[in-house]
TrEMBL record:
Signal peptide: 1-16
Pfam family, one: Lipase_3
GO annotation, biological process: lipid metabolic process
Keyword vocabulary terms for this entry: Signal
Lineage, highest ranks first: Eukaryota, Metazoa, Ecdysozoa, Nematoda, Chromadorea
Protein name, UniProt field: Fungal lipase-type domain-containing protein
Domain Fungal lipase-type per the UniProt entry, residue ranges: 148-286
Amino acid sequence: MFCLLLGLTLLFFASAIELNGCNSFKSCEECANSSNWLGLKCEWCASDNSCVPFFFNSCPLTSQIEHAYNCPCEMPKDIVYDEEFVKEKILPLIAGANEDDPTRLQKLLNCPFENVTVGNVFEVPCDLLNTTKCHAYTAVVHSEKAIVISFRGTQGIPQLLLQGIDFFVTKATTPFAPTGGRVFNYYYQAFHRLWDSKIAKDLVNYTKLFPDYEVWSVGHSLGGGLASLGAAAVVGNGFRSSDKVKMINFGQPRIGDRYFAEGHDRLVPFSFRIINIHDPVPAIPSVEPIGSPVDGPFHHRHEVWYPKGMEPGAEFTVSLMAEDRSGFDAIQQFNVEDHLFYFGKDLPNWPKTAPTC
């Protein structure tokens, strides 16, 4: 008798969940923002377009969507990933941040651009102890009608260690006003030391001199994260409207939480995080497990992943989600070389090997 009553009770609750629970929600956004009548959080299953309670979720891990922000979202029709534009225009601008000498940088950029003027090259201490340096430059590409901010990537073991301490030990974050949400302290400090004392002054001048020019914020690795902050700050501080700002980076780590990511998407819809096959840096720090009560690191859109490398003609995928467990997030093995080489170019050493004009 006891077993019969227990079975009937379980059947009742299962039926109640089915009839009055998460399955009543028919869209990802509605589902992932909701709970059923028992208070169980709902999750969307992308593989069969169903809404289920978290604790009753048999959906494959690669298809589970916990947050409405991460629901698949089509890009606006006027925002398109253009590989040739990235290889021919953006790559030299990103790699050029590894050149210290503004005169040589000018000669390097004269080759891919018909009319470009290097503005200023900046280097500042980027941590509280002044033990590491952060580097960026500004330029105006008249032939493209673009004002450029380019940020250098991680240089040396000390800088790598300080970022690692932020990511994995202290996990300290700071609110980032333009987007809302929080970003890791090292990135916040590095960005503001460059922005407050250097970059913002150039933007004031350039945006007044060239009111119809776009602003491009670009970078690699550490510089990719700073480029994301830079693009959001350009819009958030009123230098340009969202439709006049482009952000493209290579190998960016997760630099802030989900609220930062959502704010970034709102301010900078033209935003592409490009990832080479097994680059380890975009995988760190790791996203929190599904069901975690902590709002941890989260990527912003749009991920462009080259799953078989970057040889000419290589396939790529543009994810409709910020964190795509069926895309790059599914990678388990990594290769540091894939972080240093993008589209066949050794980014840190590009200034030494690229032609000058």
